[in-house]
């Protein structure tokens, strides 16, 4: 499923608004890359909050992110 540029812009704005220091960008039309903050800022709580924000954003649109094993990329599928 294609990922809309508008969604990444709005998602990044929400991540920034929450002070989560993560950024999401395109790898290609169907895959997004998750860029975590530097190691000095990375904590389990920050990581969980960022992924929860991403999940919540797409859940509102009836979609579910499907993460790669390392959780640095995701694609979207319709939520069931």
Q: Which structural class fits the helix and strand makeup? A: alpha+beta
Helix-residue proportion:
25-40%
State Rg.
12 Å
Distance between the termini: 15 Å
| Annotation field: number of helices | 2
Order of helices and strands: HEEHEE
What is the spatial order of strands in the main beta sheet?
1-2-4-3
Mean pLDDT across residues:
95
Summarize the main sheet. 4 strands, antiparallel
Could you say which overall geometry the principal axes of the C-alpha atoms support? globular
Overview of the molecule:
This protein has 80 residues and is α+β, with helices and mostly antiparallel strands. 36% of the residues lie in helices and 28% in strands. The chain has two helices and four strands, in the order αββαββ. It has helices at 5-17, 44-59; strands at 23-28, 31-35, 63-67, 73-78. A four-stranded antiparallel sheet has the order 1-2-4-3. A hairpin with a 5-residue loop joins strand 3 (63-67) and strand 4 (73-78).
Jot down its keywords.
80 residues; alpha+beta; 28% strand; 4-stranded antiparallel sheet; single chain
Summed up, what is this model?
36% of the residues lie in helices and 28% in strands. It is an alpha+beta fold and 80 residues long. It has a four-stranded antiparallel sheet with strand order 1-2-4-3.
List the topology elements.
Blueprint lengths: L4 H13 L5 E6 L2 E5 L8 H16 L3 E5 L5 E6 L2
Antiparallel strand pairs: 1-2, 2-4, 3-4
């Amino acid at each position: 499923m294609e990922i809309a540029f508008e969604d990444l812009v709005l998602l990044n704005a929400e991540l920034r608004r929450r002070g989560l220091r993560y950024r999401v960008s395109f790898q290609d039309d169907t895959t997004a890359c998750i860029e975590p903050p530097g190691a000095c800022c990375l904590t389990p709580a920050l990581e969980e909050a960022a992924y929860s924000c991403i999940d919540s954003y797409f859940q509102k649109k009836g979609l579910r992110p499907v993460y790669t094993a390392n959780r640095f990329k995701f694609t979207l599928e319709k939520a069931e």
